[in-house]
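Below is a concrete protein record.
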Amino acid sequence: MSNLKASDSFGPRKDPTRDRMRIGMTIEPGASHGRINGQRFSLGFAAGDILNLNNEIINVLDKLRKDVQRKGVDLTGQSNYLTELRKIGLAAYNTILSDEITQTHFLNEDHKNPNLPPRLTLEIPMELNLIWEVLYSGDPSGKVDPECFWGFRYPLGRYFWDTVMIQLINLREGILAGIHSELIASSKEVEHLRTNLTALDIALKMTLLDQALSADTLTSDTLMELFIDQNFPYGIIHFACHCNNPAYAGATKASLNLTVHNKDLEISILDLLNYKKKGFRHNPFIFVNACETQNLGHLLQTISLPSAFLNFRAGSVIATACTMPDVFASEFARVFYQLLLAGPNPSREVHAILDAAELNVEIYRLEYLAEVLLATRLYFLKHYNNPLGLAYGLYAVSDQKIQLW
């Protein structure tokens, strides 16, 4: 498994089998300067601007979330939130990126092969953790072009300064899953995981926390001890649970709330900080399919659940920017893992998902986490007119792979 330092993640690079370029964009602490593929440019915004833009985006996503709770995942023929998101996303794009940046560096790479946009990796200070998926590069009027949203165009990943990232996640023995009993769809969600693993026909398993932890000694400390065990056998940890993220409290109050052996179990940021010096030994990928796990309301602090897991030596994290309806979260995870665990010979169902997302299965690289996340977002947009997938963000380099075999 190769480690990747911040300074190594940039510079255009052609994929050996496809002509998808990789673009690295760095924003330096203080937001006065940045780099794209090593070329320096000036910036003119502050953390307060990012906070305001995120609040505007979350307000729209929250209205969308309420619509999904009332009407279900399929929003075909119903209100389209892309116009509202375009207004904010274009303002964010024009705030963050000057004409010099977009014309001289970024768009030139994009225009070389418009049918296969580059992978984009962002290295950012924690206080500038924008919801980058909503940036919009198109016109302010006329019909909205969904693929002008970064989250519907680029395999996109971000990570924080002074974080060592890896390029390969090994699935090891399979997936560890934690749920909350109040979430009706969470059990179905993990059963889909089990089905997908079984379909691979290799020695992988899906294990619930109930099976991995003893009911007699159940505490957050025993969970941390499981995580830091040098023989921890799982390459993926999936949480389908509640997130407690008080709006007016410090970021250290954030926690994930699970049900194990019919008892409540909490994973707090403080737990992760206390065991940080030991951490994971094998850098698993963590999917936190819960509400507000990016802690974007605490932008001026340096602690969040994604950063806490990364500092605990997770290999990568997917987290949500807003409250996520149970029914959507479950369906999104089902499609995501169906694509991610497709193996070398994708099933008819996987072909159908990619066709619905208008993606070519012959050239789409499903071993890349960022590409799988992009494909999943596009599936729900194209098939259900539902853009809520923009709320899912990947904390990793954009060319990080999952090794199944």
